[in-house]
Amino acid sequence: MENLILFFILIPITGFVASLIAPAKNERLISFIAFGTTGLTLISITCFTIIWMFNGAPSININEINLYSAHGYDFFIDLYFDKVTAVYLLFSSVLAYLIAVYSRYYMHRESGFKRFFNTKLLFITGINTIVLSGNFETLFIGWEILGLSSFLLIAYYRERYLPVKNGLKIYSIYRVADVGLLLAMWLSHHLWHENITFLQLNNAAMVNSHLHEHYFVGLIISLTIVMAAAAKSAQFPFSSWLPRAMEGPTPSSAIFYGSVAVHIGVFLLLRTYPFWSGQIEIKILVISIGIITAVLSSITAKVMSTVKAQIAYSSTAQIGLIFIEVALGWDNIALIHLSGNAFLRAYQLLISPSIVTYLIREQFFNFKPKTISQSSSRFKNSLYIIAMNEFKLDDFMYKILWTPLKKIGNFARFMNLKITVISTIALFIGSIILLNNNTQELNLSRFFIPEFIGFIAVIILLRSFVERKNAFKAWNYIFISHCWIVIAIGFNESFNLTDTLFYFGGIVPAFIFGLYFLKKLKTKETFDLNDFYGHSFEHKWLAFGFLLSSLALIGFPITTTFLGEDLLFTHIKEDQFFIATCVSVCYIVEGIAAIRIYSRIFLGPHKKSYHPVPLRDA
Fold first, then answer.
1. H/E element, 332
2. Which member of 68, 167, 302, 446 has the lowest number of beta carbons within 10 Å of its beta carbon?
3. pLDDT tens, 78-112?
């Protein structure tokens, strides 16, 4: 019976592959695949949960596949089923099936009908992988799939400017959450000296003994977990991204940002609760985030002019309350609240088009303009204006996260690509010679050489981040930064040539194929990175190929690069916080830079005059 858990992931994967093969014009076949996949998933999960409950609802842990093992490092797929898993799988599978039926009619005759269901099935695969994960590594696989499917669905109307722009903006917030999880994985390896499972975290004696000996490390792990959860669940200060995610079709808004995906941060907190529950500072932090989010989002929801924005902020407010419940240890109440909020927001979003139509019709007959009371206090008026501006959270996040990076990148514009390539080759050869001559005895870390190389890797990547003219330069800088990251970590004595080859086994092919697709497109079209060109309309296969190359280059789980990222982090020592920070910044920026190249060239309004172009704010 336990082996059936794997099928909860294999079923949506099979449906996703089948939907890719299905002809784009055959709506009946595509919708049948979606109905069958979501329906079979719902039935199988329901039957399994009933049998599991009759057997006493035991915690089930399955170590499925060991993907990579080397010098004390194991990367294995681990699945875990307990009360939290059962609740999340049940309500998400019910909503996935209902929204699949709804989407069949809502998306009828849309040009991206097949693309919508492809992405929806990919999303279900990611969600099931996260919920069934038994360790951080397995969870991170689903985490990455969820981030990609979010970007694709927000930018579903790819001929418009705002959906593509907002999709890229939200993907950048997701990269912050990804790095939070990566840092948690890195420090966990140093804390436990093994690939820890969530089942082991329930051993209170073991957790307390490790935290007592390494309190500061445990505190940093908990902070990174909270950061990842807050970013994914649109909690303060990341709340402003959720209304902008509503640019996609209404069904995707319902299942993604109203019900299932937006609650994944709550799931992460519930899953790791045994680890951080004994740290009073983290509890206070989670409660504070929940209170601030609930207050600010409730006020903002009351003044929003669009129904989707109202629902989005109402949802974040409720999730803030759920954060408080989790921190207080009320897990059962949190699960009930989570399920109820998910169903309510999904329902509200699905009927929102009808409600808007009704209100538009009614205003012609019963409209009465509201007058502002002369007795309104200055405080109320000021609060209204601030709430209309969403408490400037979007501007705040932009200034805190991206403005400093852009300033550094603009300062590095003096860097010449030819000189950078020559320097990289010379440094790479020199580092191999040094390592082969056993020069660890020189203690290179004493001279801050690894730290300096890691810092240069960040500068090179920021140079790609601000590149506006030449897409080839931006693409090359991303690859070069990977090389400098490997060199910086390579000075640690545990790193070897085999690990380097394993990491570059995904990077190099992705870089070469990406260059090929760009040069192929350059022979047919003109483009730079200063605007959106929408070339996916006429060059779909080139767009698809370049997207795969970008994903492989940034560590999406389709090549060895994904394992290589985690492998690199395990070679960063516990006291090398600066190098870990540099690598983390690189992983944030490289994902944004690569997807930005794809978005600018292949998405957005088409530049050719014979294609219909919507208004910029449409």
1. helix 331-366
2. 446
3. 888 989 999 999 999 999 999 988 888 888 888 88
For residue 578, give the nearest of 457, 471, 497 by alpha carbon: 457
Which residues 6+ apart lie within 8 Å of 430 measured at CB?
none
Task: Read off the tokens for 320.
Answer: 């803030």
Rounded distance between C-alpha atoms, residue 267 and residue 270, angstroms: 5
Instruction: List 81's β-bridge partners, or say none.
Output: 60
Backbone angles phi, psi at 245, to 5 degrees: -75, -10
Q: Looking at residues 65-83, what average pLDDT do you find?
A: 77
How do strand 73-81 and strand 60-70 relate by DSSP bridges? antiparallel
CA distance 339 to 88: 8
Tokens of 119: 């992405």
What pLDDT, in 10s, does the model give residues 296-331? 999 998 888 788 888 889 999 999 999 999 999 899
pLDDT for the residue numbered 432: 67
Hey, what are 156's tokens? 């579903």
Angle at 42 between CA 82 and CA 147, to 5 degrees: 75
Cis, peptide link before residue 237, omega less than 30° from 0:
yes
- The fraction of the chain above a pLDDT of 90, given in percent, is 23
Q: Is the dihedral of CA 485, 489, 491, 496 positive or negative?
A: negative
Are residues 300 and 313 in contact, defined by beta-carbon separation less than 8 angstroms? yes
Question: Where do the domains of the chain lie?
Answer: 2-242+251-363, 415-602
Residue 28 is given by DSSP the state: H
For CA atoms 567, 570, 571, 577, give the dihedral sign.
positive
H/E segment holding residue 520: helix 497-522
Phi, psi (rounded to 5 degrees) for 329:
85, 15
Residue 449: both structure tokens together: 């050489």
Rounded CA-CA distance 337/207 in Å is 28
For residues 154-193, one letter each, b for 16 or more C-beta atoms within 10 angstroms of the residue's C-beta and e for the rest, the string is: bbbbbbbbbbbbbbbbbbbbbbbbbbbbbbbbbbbbbbbe
What is the SS3 assignment for 193? coil
Tell me the CA distances in angstroms from 460 to 51, 483, 513, 559, one per residue in order: 55, 11, 21, 24
Within the chain, what is the greatest distance between any pair of CA atoms?
86
Phi first, then psi: give them for residue 68, nearest 5 degrees.
-160, 135
* Measured distance CA(532)–CA(528) in Å, rounded: 9
**Whole-angstrom Cα Rg for the chain:** 25
